Task: structure prediction
Amino acid sequence: MNDMTQQAFRALSDPTRRDIVRLLSHDDMTIAQLTNQFDMTRAAVKKHLTVLSDGGLITVEPRGRERVNRLNPIGMAPVLDWFQYFDRFWGDRLASLKTAIETQTAKDIS
Result:
């Protein structure tokens, strides 16, 4: 697993950060707007945003005195790739199991 994949998983390992990602999937938000959504300080929200940014899951755009946080869907690619590998792995394993069961059932019927 490469470093970006590890950083993305680290970012998604926390339920608050997953909630932030979900909120940003609907709209770009400032730190103040995000802080209003949680029972925590602005500094705590900023720390979560830093982890999400380090994981490549969000981008931060300065607009005047504000910093607008935006979901970076491309940052989810390493996570999705990792899950797709296991989706194929289990799909192949289940297909093999199905074939083995059908073969055994056919032999039992004969």
About this structure: Residues 30 and 66 are 7 Å apart (CA to CA).
